[in-house]
Design goal:
Length: 560
């Protein structure tokens, strides 16, 4: 009976989420609310917080002791999810809805690319969503105004590219607007009916959406930027020190302190640097470590001249990886994936790459989005490691297997435990060694510089947010220790300033996975099976690191 209560509770929660966050439904391939946008009014945000409190009360009224073992895990994870959401509300991060990495100036246009346009209803829903966009832009400005009043606003240094991002949505012709894109090549069977809707779209885009973005741009330039923080540290926000502790716990799923993480980072930097120096010797390069970094950052042999060459390079690497997966995994996902360029209005402030999962309805595959902006900052030697991270056996493999899980609540299929998700993807980069992909020492150096980059994150994120490091301190530390280009490092450091704590998850998660693998290998000896071990790690989707450790320990005990 308690299991039925819990399953019904999860079903109601998921349906409520799809109503509250229509864009999430679109990304998932659940299209019932494709005519709506999330209501980001202050009253709705506060209402959702109250609903979370009520949801916690409801789930706690269910007798955990009477649940099945699997449902006890589901129960514990959802209780933790609700408690973190409720405790995080006090920091009012929702008052910072726009920065260089995200916001309505990016998300609204990106949403178009995952929206279906197969019939007239799809186009009708889309027109309603376009009509709702100006109101949603206005809500962002109201939140930002409230943020100014409360002193909750991003640092000025990371907001410098945002005006151009906003401007990109109104300084183009309607035909070139991403919001008009669905009308350029409609399905032939309904092209004449869509032509009428295209006229409506033109009027909405030119008469409502572009003016709303013009107003947002003026507000940003005249009011928001002048009010932005000069201090880059999250502790300069109200209640900032406590907030950073909350973020560390949220992103790493551990109780590690900033001081402990800073120390782990420095230790890893030292260890990885020794490996990098050994790899440099294999290239035959004569000179210092810094000389080598300068050489690989500037030598043209390491860079493509054309965007399509870079994308084809990634596709070629992925094709080499695919047939090697069965040696390391017993279970592989059925969901396909592809490689796409990051949109030009977003690319200058975006990281090197990111991944978007497939839709639930199978209409859209997963995508590894690669940044083709400034090709002379996208070196070839990092491409294998990046493909392993973003596609397979990294994000695409792990996230797709989670989406394909059976007999679990929907929230488990999309577990947002960054330490697991990013820790796994970083661990996946190291699997290139076992796949025989790092035969070229430059490619191996690329993998090591990516691992070093994640180790440096532990040092610079905590440095900036807990130990008074300046932005320059962080950039210089990354330049000194990684093979990343100067442009890339500056974009990345701005990301850590904007997104405190998130960058800590990668290395902390990877270290735990490697620790658990070593423990399993040492304990099980000849009984250790790498395919079995990887399937064990991935069989429950993304979970907190403490639960992952518990499951691996149970696996080891089962052999004993």
């Amino acid at each position: 009976m308690e299991d039925t209560k819990l399953n019904n509770f999860f079903d109601r929660e998921f349906k409520s989420m799809l109503i509250e966050y229509p864009e999430s439904g679109t990304y998932m391939g659940r299209h019932d609310n494709n005519d709506k946008l999330t209501d980001m009014s202050l009253s709705s945000i506060e209402k959702r917080h109250r609903n979370s409190i009520r949801s916690l009360e409801k789930i706690l009224s269910i007798k955990r002791s009477m649940l099945s073992e699997n449902n006890k895990i589901n129960y514990d994870l959802y209780v933790q999810k609700l408690r973190q959401s409720i405790s995080g509300f006090e920091y009012m991060s929702y008052l910072m809805p726009i920065d260089q990495l995200g916001g309505i100036q990016i998300s609204a246009a990106n949403l178009v690319g995952v929206t279906p346009f197969n019939n007239l209803d799809d186009y009708s829903n889309y027109l309603k969503r376009l009509e709702a966009l100006p109101r949603r832009i206005k809500q962002s400005m109201i939140l930002m105004s409230k943020g100014i009043a409360e002193g909750i606003i991003p640092p000025k240094v990371v907001l410098k590219s945002v005006p151009e991002q906003i401007k990109a949505q109104f300084t183009i012709s309607i035909e070139d607007s991403p919001f008009y894109d669905p009308f350029t090549e409609p399905p032939k069977s309904i092209s004449s009916e869509v032509a009428q809707k295209a006229k409506e779209a033109r009027l909405i885009i030119s008469g409502k959406i572009m003016p709303a973005f013009i107003e947002l741009h003026s507000f940003f330039i005249d009011k928001y930027l002048p009010s932005a923080r000069t201090n880059i540290s999250v502790v300069s926000l109200p209640n900032g020190e406590k907030y950073y502790k909350h973020l560390i716990n949220y992103y790493t799923t551990t109780d590690l302190s900033a001081k402990e993480i800073h120390k782990i980072g420095k230790s890893e930097v030292k260890r990885i640097k020794e490996k990098m120096q050994s790899t440099i010797k294999q290239t035959g390069f004569k000179g210092s470590f810094q000389d080598f970094l300068e050489f690989i950052r500037s030598d043209k042999r390491f860079y493509y001249d054309e965007e399509e060459e870079l994308l084809d390079g990634y596709r070629s690497i992925c094709k080499k990886i695919d047939p090697k997966l069965s040696a390391l995994f017993g279970k592989l996902p059925r969901i396909p994936y592809g490689v796409k360029p990051i949109p030009p209005y977003q690319a200058p402030s975006s990281p090197t790459a990111y991944y978007h999962g497939a839709s639930d309805d199978g209409s859209r595959p997963g995508y590894f989005w690669a940044n083709t902006y400034n090709l002379d900052t996208r070196p070839k030697y990092e491409m294998i490691a990046l493909a392993l991270h973003e596609a397979v056996p990294g994000h695409h493999l792990q996230i797709s297997l989670a989406q394909e899980m059976k007999n679990v609540p929907e929230f488990r299929k999309r577990g947002g435990y960054t330490a697991f998700v990013e820790g796994w993807a970083l661990y996946a980069e190291s699997l290139g060694e076992e796949m025989g992909l790092y035969k070229d020492p430059y490619d191996k150096f690329g993998q090591l510089t990516y691992e070093m980059w994640r180790a440096c994150r532990l040092v610079v994120d905590t440095g900036m947010h807990a130990f008074n490091w300046s932005r320059k301190d962080a950039v210089d530390y990354m330049l000194k220790n990684t093979g990343k280009t100067s442009y890339d490092i500056n974009v990345e450091v701005d990301r850590y300033i904007t997104w405190p704590g998130q960058a800590l998850a990668y290395k902390i998660g990877e270290l735990k996975i490697k620790e658990l693998r070593k423990k399993s290998e040492d304990t099980l000896g000849e009984n250790f099976n790498i395919r079995e071990f990887h399937d064990l790690l991935l069989q429950n989707g993304a979970i907190p690191l403490y639960l992952l450790e518990e499951q691996v320990n149970n696996y080891i005990q089962s052999y004993k």
